[in-house]
Specification:
Helices cover 41% and strands 12% of the residues of chain A. Chain A is of the alpha+beta class.
Amino acid sequence: ALYRGLDSRDELVAKIRSLHGDALKKLALQCEDLFMAGQKDQLRFGVDSWSDFRLTSDRPCCEAGDAVYYQASYAKEPLSSYAVKICKSKAKESQQYYHSLAVRQSLAVHFNIQQDCGHFLAEVPLRLLPWEDPDTPGDEDEDGDGDEEGGGAEAGAGGGPGQQRSHVVVITREVPHLTVADFVRESSARHGRSPDAYERQVCLLLLQLCSGLEHLKPYHVTHCDLRLENLLLIRGRPEAEAGPARLLVSNFSQAKQKSRLAEPEALRDRSRLAPEILTATQYKKCDEFQTGILIYEMLHLANPFDENPGLKEREYTRADLPRIPCRSPYSWGLQQLAGCLLHPNPSERILISDAKGVLQCLLWGPRQDLFPSLGGPAGPRGAALQSWLDIKRTLLMVKFAEKALDRAGGVSLEDWLCAQYLAFATTDSLGGIVDILQQR
Amino acid sequence: ALYRGLDSRDELVAKIRSLHGDALKKLALQCEDLFMAGQKDQLRFGVDSWSDFRLTSDRPCCEAGDAVYYQASYAKEPLSSYAVKICKSKAKESQQYYHSLAVRQSLAVHFNIQQDCGHFLAEVPLRLLPWEDPDTPGDEDEDGDGDEEGGGAEAGAGGGPGQQRSHVVVITREVPHLTVADFVRESSARHGRSPDAYERQVCLLLLQLCSGLEHLKPYHVTHCDLRLENLLLIRGRPEAEAGPARLLVSNFSQAKQKSRLAEPEALRDRSRLAPEILTATQYKKCDEFQTGILIYEMLHLANPFDENPGLKEREYTRADLPRIPCRSPYSWGLQQLAGCLLHPNPSERILISDAKGVLQCLLWGPRQDLFPSLGGPAGPRGAALQSWLDIKRTLLMVKFAEKALDRAGGVSLEDWLCAQYLAFATTDSLGGIVDILQQR
């Protein structure tokens, strides 16, 4: 059947297209298995495992918004590395942490959402709590919840019991080495020196953020606290090509989840509420808005609403938002994206899935100079986009094929992200994104 | 420029075609580098290295027509493995070996031609010469040529000097584990049990033989002694998929080389000779003929000219050749190929390069059931073959792309051979082979 209709050029093109399409979908899934190797097996460390963890160093590997991370090894699995996350909140505030855990545990595993391999209240030596004042007495009377145990805290290799304090400890498999806040701070000079490379990297990080946030939608979860210091970066596998770091969304302490259980009862009351109030209580497009702010911040610009606190009070339009300087081929598109995400009216604000599409288009999509020839939605755009997609898929297949012989390199995170895009793009999805990018 | 002409379907197809074509040519070359890694660096071990070689075992790893092979390690490079080839001919016959070496050394390196990393006359302990009668006195008075030295023969770990004999020793990098004669002998039951797999493997071995022989042509070299016991098999790399073994053409002691130096003078004489005499003295199509015999022998059939010695005396036709039983999808094509190679008239005998094309076609080419729809050379065959090639190239690119993620497998020898075929095939070359296969 594969070789039937050999005389029709249309059938030939359709066949090559379906072979490439199927192959890329399969490759994208295989990449997922590769990049998430092991992560899909659920691990549940309890407080009884605490003594089997030993910190590789007393120096934190990363200081994030809500916690400090230490690299650690696990005695029963000496070749794997883990991170021990010590939450900054006091034991008496641990309720809030358990809220965020409950939210996170309702989600399926995702490459860009921090995963919890176990958590418990543990006695942590004071020297691992750099933010705490050693002179303030510990809350030794506090009792947290049932999980608590005055465990050995072997991890820190001792110290008198008086120098320990009770904190929520989380074990994670991914060891963060930076927050995006650190990354942005450290990259200021690089942004000036190589704006193309830096702004491309920003796009790759934002794409991963959107990918994680998109994953939350079907679970009706909104993060509500997207800040640079709540986004963690994980160094790539050493054998992979130098490429973008993996981004993890962390700190779900402010997350909102629309409970589906509560819905039937609440529905009657809600049916009498004005829509703008309903929207507000659902926080539905809150993450989109915060992503818009992150675009400014990642480009070393101030949050427009910090800079101009009056903005939110009046009915601002995108023209009122500060201009992003045009420093690279990505600046223009990021400006456009920020405008769409910061739309004051949530119903006109674009969805996180569209934001993802815009970033994919900026990274690998038809280039801006191609747009005019694509015409409007009514024109012959479909055929042109289809041809564009066919060529891009051919090029990506060639790229993957070359990696089969490339002992050094291997498939990079960027290859995977690109494969996801080209595998699932359609002329309709491509056209829709071109329209968003051309919005005025 | 890549995306111009997006609206023309013909241009789209042409673009995908040229991307695939270029990529496959590049992949085929990269495979060559991979499979011949190290082989292109010339090594020249002299007799002074002899004492640095140590046999891994006193049991030969392979007994071939002209020599016995022992696996050996080289003290200065303990991780590489080498084979020590001890030629069966006596030292006084070593002149013949040096003839074959001279022929081989005039050739560029090829994957299917045995390569010599050094050779010398050495004293070899008698127990490494299983074919020799220990009671026959050694030719201790013989002196071979200037290369000779009464070297330590450390390789054999000693023995009295009276138990040594002078033999030509060759160091090769490829360690043979079987001759094709052994392989055929051991596969008799398997041929009956899984005729498809066995006859496919025969095609892959014959393809490699043709590939090696084709390489000899520009050097005007004819092997002239193609027998199963002069073809060696090398086990594949352990990390590669189970696939066909690598075949090496060995024993060039009967090889003829048309000397280009002698040509200008000889040309005048030759210009007065009848063409059939010229053809006969050049041995030009001798390897083709012997390859035809090997087809029978590899399929567990007798050499037709052994079985019927009268055949060559009369003007036989292909109809007089014994029928090859039809046991697999390859039998029919191998019969056809044998007929073309055993043509009594050398000018009508097909070239080794065509034989290679036939084997490629049997292995990966358009299937026999597709031939009728291809029509004759005058019909719309070109377009149909081009489409067929486009689809096959797409499938091969997909296959290579999948290998990029396949940690276990990697690219196999068969993948490489297939890539060579599809990278360099044209509608004309495909059409020519289809014609040969349809010849009656």
